[in-house]
Amino acid sequence: MKVIYIYEQRFPYKGDDIRFGYNIFLHRGYEVEVWSLAKWRYGLNGDSKTLSGGARIDEDEYVKIINSKDEFLKNIERINKEKCFFLLYSYNGFCEISFYIRRILYKKNIPFANISMSTCLHGIDKKLNNINIVWIILMLFRNFIVRNVYYLFKWMISLGNNRKFLKEVTDSIYSFFGYLLYPSVYNFVTTTFMYSRFPNPMEKYSKRNVLICSNSYDEYLESIDTKRVIEEKYIVFIDTGVLTLDDRCTTLGEDIPVKNKEKYCNDMKILFDSLEEEYHCPVVIAAHPKAGYIGNEFGYRMMIFGKTPQLVKDAELVVNEISTAFGLAVLHKKDVLEVYTTEMFTNAVGWRKSYEDYEKIGFKLLNIADKTQVKRVKEYIFVYNENAYKEYIDILIKSKGSIGEGKTFYQCVYEYIDKWRIEKGWNSKE
Predict the structure, then answer these.
(1) Which of 175, 224, 230, 353 is buried most deeply by CB count within 10 Å?
(2) How far apart are CA 413 and CA 129, in angstroms?
(3) What residues contact 354, with CB distance under 8 A and at least 6 apart?
(4) Could you read off the pLDDT of 10-36 as tens digits, one per residue?
């Protein structure tokens, strides 16, 4: 049996085999394929690595870059006689293509499940974690009536020339009817907050939903009993690859977060010098899996790929840069320094909202370009706070009512799919 991942809004990166659980299926006799629709969805042309700003693209033989509708259909025909189960990531940002691929799978009787994203602090708003029928009705009114009337009006006053406004309306209609017309076998959900990001908020009450945990909980479980990566004391910087094209920037149609690479790296080196003087230990870079570094970006400091959970577990201090790996620092009860550069908000304005949410739980954010702030770095360190961290865990890491205590997200996904396979009488090795 074959499990096929579809990434609608992103490219496949190095390290995804662990993050998205390919290895779990492969070790149990399943085949795995990965299809990226990012080029098709965003109308992109050219080499994937270049388009992503030099990111570490996964180019293994199981990866298929789908450039068009025709290529998608050809690949569907290729696997049509095989026993397959599709995992569609992520279940937000629904559009015409989202609707189309589900329609094709449903009509061909090919089983699929939707997978929600893990969230960062932009989900700290409690109102979005206590969704009830009143909230859903208000969202339906706002998103499918008020919003569509607004965009239809904008389209009309452009005399029909601006197709972007009309697309907003059609995508809204597709998102409303998608789950009703072409239901999935399951919706694998990370946290309750992600119900507010479902294409149709009514689906919050679907019996197909399986609430599990965020990616941070997975990484926490995997790091608990691991040996120290570095024996001596150290500070860890959780890199987010802002010098490359982040997925959220692709989704929002924004630019690479940081274009002035030389200034950014120099500012970071000055900050790290200050921290090393304060803590009397080195800063180690937990490099983002997709970051295409050559090694000298941060003053030849030790740069380690694929070990972020273990590095956070044993660090004296965690320096974070709007990474969802902040959840690891919370679970391991670490002090955190949250940093940013204004260029991130200029080129990728969606990041500003996330940093406003860090401020909601008491963070003082440090601008790496402000040398006065860097000299007073101790004032910007958020010391472990049990109440604040517990609230974060409940909302954005492991929600009340979730399944799989002590299991990772994709261990639970595997168990559900394997149970479904057995009920269908399919052999995993067929």
Answers:
(1) 175
(2) 23
(3) 120, 121, 122, 322
(4) 999 888 998 899 999 999 999 999 999
Helix axes 163-181, 147-157, angle to 10 degrees: 150
159: left (phi over 0), alpha (psi -120 to 50) or beta: left
pLDDT > 90 fraction of the chain, expressed in percent and rounded: 53
The SS3 assignment for 30 reads coil
Residues in the chain: 430
* Long-range CB contacts (within 8 A, 24+) of 14-19: 14/56, 14/57, 14/58, 14/289, 14/290, 14/305, 15/56, 15/289, 15/290, 15/305, 15/306, 16/58, 16/289, 17/58, 18/306, 19/215, 19/289
pLDDT for residue 250: 62
* DSSP state string for 308-352: HHHHHHT-S-EEESS-TTHHHHHHTT--EEEEE-HHHHHH-THHH
* β-strand partners of 200: none
The answer to whether the Cα torsion of 188, 191, 195, 198 is positive or negative is: negative
| pLDDT tens track for 270-324 | 999 999 999 999 999 999 877 878 878 999 999 999 899 999 999 999 999 878 7
- Other C-beta atoms closer than 10 Å to the C-beta of 126 total 11
pTM, rounded to two decimals: 0.85
Q: What is the mean pLDDT of the chain?
A: 88
Residue-wise pLDDT tens digits, 79-125: 988 899 999 998 988 999 999 999 999 999 999 999 998 765 555 55
CB contact at 8 A, 412 and 403: yes
* Whether 188 contacts 210, CB under 8 Å: yes
How many Å apart are CA 12 and CA 27, to the nearest integer?
20
Kindly state the tokens that stand for 53.
């700003």
State both tokens at 278. Answer: 């304060």
Q: Does residue 253 surpass a pLDDT of 70?
A: no
Neighbours of 383 (CB within 10 A): 8
**Where does the pLDDT of residue 392 fall: very low under 50, low under 70, confident under 90, or very high at 90 and above?**
confident
